[in-house]
Design goal:
By secondary structure, the protein is mainly α. The chain contains six helices and two strands. The protein has a two-stranded antiparallel ribbon.
C-alpha cells in the first residue's frame, strides 16, 4: 500500500506518516517498506491526487503487509492504535491455535479405528499362536494314545497258559 492511502486509513497527514517512518527507519527493513523510484513515481503520478500546487511533491513509500503492521505501531492515531491492538490479538490467537490445535473429530476417529485394527490383528495373531500350540499338543496326545492302543492290543491278545495242563481225553467209542 502507498503511504498516502495508509495516512488516510490511519487518519494522519501523509507528511506526519513519513516523519514517523523516517524517525523509526530501523523498524522498516526493505521487506517491510521501500521508496518508489522516480520512474515508478512518474508512472503512478497521473493516478494520484494532486497537491494544491498541482502535483504530488515527494515520491511515495510503498508498504508490504509487515510494513503496514509495523506502521500501526509507530503512529499515534486512534485508528493506528486500534489496528495495532487487533494485530497483537491476532498474533496471540494464532499462537494459541498452534499450541492447542482444535480437535479434529474425523482424525480422532481415524486414529481410534487404526488403533482398533492393530489391536484386533494382535489378538488374532495371539489366537493363531495359541491355536497352533493347541494343535501341536493335540497331535502329541493323539500320537501317545495311538502308541498306548498298540501296546494295549499287544497286552490283551490271548496268551498261552503257563504251567501244567492235563490232557483232555475223549470218551466214547
Amino acid at each position: 500500500m502507498l503511504d498516502f492511502h495508509l495516512a488516510e486509513i490511519y487518519q494522519v497527514e501523509t507528511k506526519r506518516l513519513k516523519e514517523a517512518v523516517r524517525r523509526n527507519i530501523e523498524r522498516f527493513p526493505d521487506d517491510f517498506m521501500f521508496e518508489l523510484t522516480k520512474q515508478e513515481w512518474r508512472i503512478l503520478r497521473s493516478q494520484i491526487a494532486s497537491s494544491s500546487w498541482g502535483g504530488a511533491r515527494y515520491q511515495s513509500f510503498a508498504f508490504t503487509e509487515q510494513g503496514v503492521a509495523m506502521l500501526s505501531s509507530v503512529l499515534n492515531s486512534k485508528p493506528a492504535i486500534t489496528a495495532n491492538i487487533s494485530i497483537m490479538r491476532a498474533f496471540v490467537a494464532i499462537r494459541q491455535l498452534l499450541a492447542n490445535p482444535p480437535i479434529d473429530k474425523v482424525s480422532e476417529l481415524q486414529n481410534e479405528v487404526r488403533e482398533l485394527k492393530q489391536y484386533i490383528e494382535n489378538v488374532f495373531t495371539d489366537y493363531n499362536d495359541i491355536n497352533e500350540d493347541t494343535r501341536m499338543q493335540l497331535e502329541l496326545i493323539n500320537e501317545t494314545l495311538a502308541e498306548l492302543q498298540t501296546k494295549n492290543k499287544a497286552l490283551n491278545k490271548p496268551r498261552n497258559p503257563i504251567g501244567f495242563t492235563a490232557p483232555q481225553y475223549k470218551l466214547g467209542k
